[in-house]
Amino acid sequence: MRTVRALLCGAAVVAALPVMAQETDQSNSEILVTALRTTTKLQETPIAITAVGQADLENKQIANAQDIAKAVPGLTLIPVSANPSTFQLALRGGTEQTPGLIVSEPAVGLYVDDVYRGRLQGSNLQMADIERIEVLRGPQGTLYGRNTFSGALKVITRTPGANDKWFNASAGYGSYNEFRGDASVGGALAGNLGGSLAVFYRNQDDGWIFNRAQNRMVGRENNFVGRAKLAYDDGTLKVVASASYAKDVNDGYLPVNVSFVPDAARVNYATRVFTRNARPVVAGDPFVTSSPTPSRGETEVFTAGLDLSYQVGAVTLRSITAYVDTTDYFRWDLAAGLQVAPTVFISTFDRGSASSARQWSQELQATGASLNDKLTWLLGVYYFNEQGTQDFSDAFFGFQLPLFVQRTRTDSYAAFAQANYALSERTSLTLGGRYTRDDKRFDATIAAPTNLTAGLNASFDAFTPKLGLEHKFSPDAMGYLSVSRGFKAGGFNGLSRAPAVLNAVYRPQTVWAYEAGLKAEFLDRKLRTNLAVFVNDIDNLQQTAQRGTDFPQINVGSARVWGVELELTARPVPGLDLFSAVAYNNGRYTRLDPAADAATSGARDIPLVSDWQVRLGGTFEQPLNERLLARIGGNMNYTGPYNAAVTNALVVAGWTRIDAFAALATADKRWELNLSVQNLTDQVTYTSGIVGPPFQPALNVLRPRTWMTTLKFKY
After folding, report:
1. What's the CA gap between 302 and 584, in Å, rounded?
2. DSSP character at residue 6
3. In 330-412, where does DSSP find H-type helix?
4. What is the DSSP string of 415-479?
5. Cα separation of 598 and 315, whole Å?
6. What backbone phi and psi angles, to 5 degrees, belong to 2?
7. CA–CA dist 229, 195 (Å, integer)
8. Cβ-count burial of 393 within 10 angstroms (0-12 exposed, 13-18 middle, 19+ buried)?
9. Which of 168, 437, 562, 693 has a 20 to 30 Å separation from 222 between CA atoms?
């Protein structure tokens, strides 16, 4: 009933939007994207892609990277057991559930200004001065750097031009004593040279979860982002130099205490027998944790990049050079603590970790057109180097474990090509391929009295082809078919102290992906529909297992994920913009290693695959007089039940969260006063957690209802 009420409430938010309005800048005009590494029209790009522009970021209240899931069908981004600067992600069966490790790599590639980010630490980017976000669904192994196994998430920041200028600023105050402010300025500096500077600051002074052991509220966060860009463009030569710095300090990962009913029938802690479909229940306040561990998270990311392109006749040469330096610290109690007496609490698994990673990458491209523009093509080579360290200081129920230190190095090489040939005026064929080789080194030391060391070298390579066929049925409708292969390299175990596991190497994970899509516009672009149907056959599926307090990464077998994704945008009358994104996914194991946790527990479904996801909402704008106009909007996000654990021992109930805003602006839209609310119905939302012995059950929980009042200025 709660879900039904929330769905009705979300529909009411949209239905309440008036039907008389003036034209806004959110019209269904042509949307340009760079998903194919060149600029193309969204409706003529033959892949499943969601593009989110500046206006959508504001209207859908996408404040950080984790919020991007509000706009994308089938994408899951949820908190992780490290700190809020990092998240778990899942898309079309590609998952990463331990992203806080130096040895972990995402199944969905994260790119900022076409630069691959190897670490998910610090990946929950604050949306400061963003021009556009593109989420590409399905393997992108032909055109993109590394580990775009099931998709790519691209963040494109605003680049200054010599002929444009702007100044934007905002300041806001909201729930939990939160202050948020940002400013961005850009424009011409001299001749063909432009520059920009953007800063963002957020401080939330009060917590929203009560820690009984420490008798205080926890959940505070502080964020800072600064970015500078210089851009030169004389028509032939384009140069973009950029540098950014981001820092995130917070109270860390804060699981809450839960129980299961009937607990004995769901999880047998003595025999490690899991029964599927365990559902959490909480007696009393759900926002309570009980650990004396002083949880904390702190992440710093520095980036520098140089993007050069030069036009030589019909050929464009491009070089992308980048450096990313990430340092990360977290400390938390994995199972939220344990109450052993009315006023006595103990930590369960107290883990502290400090890590650093330095990467640099170089990509060279050549793009052009041949045969009277019937053939468009791209050739490229890519190199990626990363060196990292991470140490773990752990205590298990108060017993201190030996210091665990890891060192890693990765060298990745790739050559890629993709071409599109027009077979006729309406039909074209796409053929591409990429060869990737990863050379990895892993060294680990566990201090006395264990005195265990490990030194491993491993290489992984793969050829990932793509074949596609596109056909334009009319100027406003096109369809496509594609077959592609995705690859995620193998690696090493950073969450295990057992000698046999620490010295083991898990194999690469691959996927054959089959997709059919239809993109169409109707009623003079007032209605846009994008439909995609896919089947992903995954082999050597990589998953995190549990062996007591060890969590090794292993290959467990094969799986098939299939689904349907539908996106609609509509402008029934001027000023009223509606959207919806619906995804149905079905993910099942097809073959399992008998020793895998999923096999021994009788699991059927792969984790983090929700059957139904529904996103819908809209915005409306209405002038009040010659000087003022009003805006109102809302969006509803429904995520159906899914398994949070590979064993299927924990089923997270589906949730519905509704966001809404109301704003008063000047007619020229330079000034705006905005009141926004997230989680309007104040739904308690669990996302993931731990249920396996020897730990007591503990889950992540999303924030309760929050509000923010913001004053904005744009010029």
Report:
1. 38
2. H
3. none
4. EEEEEEEESSSSEEEEEEEEEEEEEEEEEEEE-TTT-EEEEEEEEEEEEEEEEEEEEEEETTEEE
5. 51
6. -60, -40
7. 6
8. middle
9. 168
Report the distance separating Cα 440 and Cα 386, nearest Å: 10
Residue 547 per-residue DSSP state: B
Residue 129 phi, psi dihedral angles, 5° rounding: 55, 50
Which H or E run contains 372?
A: none
**Residues linked to residue 614 through DSSP beta bridges, in sequence order:** 582, 638
Do residues 596 and 554 lie in contact, with contact meaning Cβ atoms separated by under 8 Å?
yes
For 523, list phi and psi in degrees, rounded to 5.
Answer: 55, 50
CA distances from 396 to 38, 494, 502, 645 (A): 52, 17, 19, 22
Per-residue tokens: 470 = 């596109």
* DSSP helix/strand/coil, 14: helix
CA atoms within 13 A on the CB side of 262: 2
Task: Round to whole Å and give the CA distance between 128 and 101.
Answer: 26
Measure the CA–CA gap between 491 and 142, rounded to whole angstroms. 22
* Strand pairing category for 87-91 and 94-96: antiparallel
Length of the chain in terms of residues written = 715
- DSSP label of 35: T
> How is domain 2-714 classified at the architecture level of CATH?
Beta Barrel (2.40)
Location of structure tokens 């890629």: 416
pLDDT at residue 273, rounded to an integer: 39
Three-class DSSP category at 371: coil
* Cβ-Cβ contacts under 8 Å for 17 (sequence gap 6 or more): 576, 578, 618, 619, 620, 632, 633
Say how far apart CA 388 and CA 105 lie, in whole Å.
13
CB atoms within 10 A of CB 493: 28
**pLDDT for 670:** 95
Question: What residues in the chain have per-residue pLDDT under 70?
Answer: 1-29, 81, 145, 259-284, 548-549, 691-694
- Looking at residue 127, its pLDDT comes to 76
Q: In terms of DSSP H, where are the helices of 253-312? A: 263-266
- Predicted pLDDT at 693: 65
Question: What's the pLDDT at 260?
Answer: 60
H helices of 561-698, in order, are 597-600
Cα(147)–Cα(482) distance, integer angstroms: 19
The pLDDT assigned to 278 comes to 43
Give how far Cα 422 sits from Cα of 37, 49, 177, 544, Å. Answer: 19, 22, 58, 45
Structure tokens at 545: 């297992």
Q: What whole-number distance in Å separates Cα of residue 124 and Cα of residue 109?
A: 13
Reduced to 3 states (helix: H, G, I; strand: E, B; else coil), residue 39 is coil
Residue 9's φ and ψ, nearest 5 degrees, are: -65, -40
Give the count of alpha carbons within 13 A of 544, CB side only. 24
